[in-house]
Amino acid sequence: MLVVGVALGFTVRGRAETGSDADLAALQAGTRDSFRNTVTPFVTTYCVSCHGSKKRKGQINFQPALKNPGDTTYSKQWKQALANVKTLDMPPDEADKQPTDEERQAFLDCVAKVKYLSPKDPGPFVIRRLTKAEYGNTLHDLFGVDPAIVHELPDEVFGEGYLNTLSPLQMEQYLGIANDVLDRISALKGAPAAALKRWFGEPPAPGTDVRVAARNVARSLARGAYRRPPSEAELDVLVAVFDLGRQNKLSYASAVGLMLKAVLVSPQFLYITPAGEAEAGHDVVPLDDWQLASRLSYLLWATMPDAELSALADNGQLHEPAILQAQVRRLLKDPRSRALFDGFGAQWLGLGSLEGKAFDTTKFPLMTSAMRLAMYDEARLFFESIVRDNRSVVSFVDCDYTFLNATLAPLYGLEKTVTGPEMRKVHLTDANRGGILGMPGILAVTSYPNRTSPVKRGVWVLEQVLGENVPPPPPNVPALDKQDKKTVADLTLRQRTELHRTNPVCANCHKILDPIGFGLENFDAIGRWRDQDDTGGAIDAGGELPGGKHFSTPKELKTIIATRKQDLSRNLTEKLLAYALCRQLEGYDEIVVDQLMEGIAKDGYRMQTLVTEIVTSYPFTHRRIPDQLTSSSK
After folding, report:
1. What is the dihedral of CA 396, 550, 462, 540, to 10 degrees?
2. Mind giving me the DSSP string for 453-465?
3. Alpha carbon of 296 to those of 313, 385, 597: distances in Å?
4. Are 466 and 568 in contact (CB under 8 A)?
5. Spatial contact of 394 and 605, defined as CB atoms under 8 Å apart
6. How far apart are CA 202 and CA 540, in angstroms?
7. 502 contacts: CB under 8 Å, gap ≥ 6
8. How far apart are alpha carbons 416 and 439 in whole angstroms?
9. Could you read off the pLDDT of 610-625 as tens digits, one per residue?
10. Considering the entire predicted model, what is its pTM?
11. Helix (H, G, I), strand (E, B) or coil at 532
12. What distances in angstroms separate CA 369 from CA 94, 154, 357, one per listed residue?
């Protein structure tokens, strides 16, 4: 087996190794020392009185984490601690002891290095079920049927990773779809139609061994459906199904049809699985080329590998770095790469909730189904243009074009120049627009049904764009709408929010969140520009971000955020890598991201480079053996 990654560098079948075991050992030794000398005293002094073995506020106990800080079990806990200490939420103001600024910074610096204590590992390998969209697309590519054939399957609930459970009801639905597929590829039910010949071949001649013919058909069907060559044992199972049909007096064609249905409800079809057992004696192995082809194809196209990918896998060439990189570029140029937005982009931007989000129809009569679709398509076409044109990730924030039609144009004040139902690329002259921060669909999903929300917008920018960890709101804090109506009657939303900030429990978080949200207040709840808020008061979009950076307009806020190229790129890299691996990142994954960022930065943070770095990365191209598999819900 090839040597797997070391320290801050790793080998992926020919990829240059940039670190050494000595480097990793030195990093780990230094991290243990700084943890022992800095983090342990900090937590012992300021945290364990409330978050220890005797008292566990919020069900948080730091003492086990102190004993084994590199354990991935505690990764989320350390990230939350970083966020709380950074925003001065912890220790709370009423605590007897408060750390100095120097102690806080030393704690933050040391906890950020805990990743170096993680063992070299590609992480849990997820054998996952095809999503509804992937299942429909795969049936279309195999048999030419309409992907809508799967419409009765339930929609997935997206989150982290993928849902791998399979209920009896779903199995019945899959069987019903298999019956439907067989009917549709048969021109006439029960007749030896051309479509049947395409998949099942000519009926065997009299005197021919029908079981041999059926096995050949099974081999051909399974190679396509399983996305890899079937094993002889798998063929034995399919031929046994054929035999069962013949024993029940079915014709050859009907028995072969029964075998096809068995293929379409098999785990090998419904799940993306490795080709076979790994060689004994290894904890980590590279993915076989067929598995790599499927992982790549379903990531970028949401369907099975095409003929070119399959041929490269059959020839054992796909894993070669230059060939794998070339295939990433080819797949991204294909229209099917829309799936990268529908699967990942929409989830990243939060647009999955747009279709069903409620709005006050009296205040916002423009929020029709057509408007929601146009909002979604604007973001999709914008995302696709950045990927297709290989633009920098900074373009997501700072850009001078978008995609509009007559439905969406009024929100931009361009209804006189943009007409007709077709979406088209439009150059923007207003620098407050352009990029995701001024995009109506995103502004809408980060608002309430009847008004804007500076807090929701601030959280969205920090978490989804910059990758910050925002602490959850403390319990029992009254919502803005619960303020005394007489007291706030003549106040703007900004003034009401600032009044809310006078609560010391809320102040630390809001002083970070609110300036960003206020910087977008010129956009109403569906993304239209305005100079006054709902009370008639003038919009004040000014603010200050950490580091003393001031802004007074959305344009200036965008400019400040766009300068954070490293943060923008790292956040997108982490989110896309987690999506590609179907799981949360943890432990050694953070070291992998450090390595990926080196290559991405060298090419100007370009989007195709980011995708290619992820596809050729160690955790994407390797898997842990043999039994530490996980599944999670998407």
Report:
1. -90
2. -HHHHHHHIIIII
3. 12, 20, 20
4. yes
5. yes
6. 75
7. none
8. 19
9. 999 999 999 999 998 8
10. 0.86
11. strand
12. 50, 21, 11
